Amino acid sequence: MEGSNATFEYVYDFYGPSASWFAIYIGATSTFIVISNIFFTILTLSTPKLRENVANWFLVGLSISDQLHYLSHVVDAYAIYTGSINNRYWCSVSGAFVLITGTCSFGFPAIIAADRYYKICTISQPSGFSISSALFSKRATIPLIVSWFFIAAISNLPLMLTDAFGEDPSGFCGAKKFTSIPLLLGYEFSVVFAYFGSLAVTGIYYYRLAKWLKLHQTASTGNHQEVDYTRSIMRVMKIVTLMPAFLGMMQFSNFADY
């Protein structure tokens, strides 16, 4: 019993006056991001020219995932602000959605990069049927997005079944401090693997897109619009891929100082 209390000793410092200002900050910034993503989603879906481009639907999927993620952080802020050692319910609920939606958002840069690569390959060198062309076809866009949401949720099933969501040692509602190797591995193979796996896949397709750009941006093939759009997609990929890494480094630095 003493070991258990020592393991969760950080929970006693998780709530209280010192965490109130952090909760207000999290709530304010998360609300702003949710509203921004809502505006982006509405703008994209209400503009016919943007709606016709399949790649924009993946950006909408990422935007919806981020909306849910930061809406979870709004609940996270409420849980930290109003919670206590005897009132931990909302932190566990928020933690579940923070990790599930975070896993989902991590995967979208790789999907966007792969989709763009196979689209320009089809434009440049039309060929017959292939799994990649079928997977990233226009009719498969919505099912692919929905499937990824489902996979992200299922990948966190081990944590759901073991009541592992709650006060994260780094100061927000996510995963509790792990007390067993299987729980740690479950976390590693869901959230962490999704991030680094997506990072690797995104890097591979980013390299392929860069090679395609190098071949086509100076050639007078009439693909100027595709070149410009591909370059824009690559800029978006850099932002949505590197931003979580930057925020994670800041969070790790703050946790190390703590």
Automatic annotation (TrEMBL):
Matching Pfam families: 7tm_1
Alphabetized InterPro entries for the sequence: GPCR_Rhodpsn, GPCR_Rhodpsn_7TM
Membrane-topology annotation of the record: Multi-pass membrane protein
Highest rank taxon of the organism: Eukaryota
All copies of domain G-protein coupled receptors family 1 profile, residue ranges: 36-258
A GO-annotated cellular component: plasma membrane
Signal peptide segment: none
SUPFAM superfamilies registered for this protein in UniProt: Family A G protein-coupled receptor-like
Keyword line: Cell membrane, G-protein coupled receptor, Membrane, Receptor, Transducer, Transmembrane, Transmembrane helix
Location in or out of the cell: Cell membrane
GO molecular function, one term: G protein-coupled receptor activity
Protein name (database record): G-protein coupled receptors family 1 profile domain-containing protein
